Amino acid sequence: MATCKVCESEAQELVDVAEQYVLDLIKKDHPDWVSSDGACPKCIKYYENLDTIIEIKDSSE
Q1: How many domains does the chain have?
Q2: Over 60: is that where the pLDDT of 60 sits?
Q3: Residue-number span of the structural domain to which 34 is assigned
Q4: Please, which pLDDT band fits residue 17 given cuts at 50, 70 and 90?
Q5: Is there a smaller number of Cβ atoms within 10 Å at the N or the C end of the chain?
């Protein structure tokens, strides 16, 4: 098993992060994280959804 460098949990697999906006969001919360560390699918989904929430909030202002 691998350890996700974002949430520190055990993960069956780590996923390479390709989308720049997801990289930026993770780096904002975890400055020491590098994309080559990868992240677990749960964390990737969280940051993808977080970006959607931010977009909705910004468009409503």
Answers
A1: 1
A2: no
A3: 2-60
A4: confident
A5: C
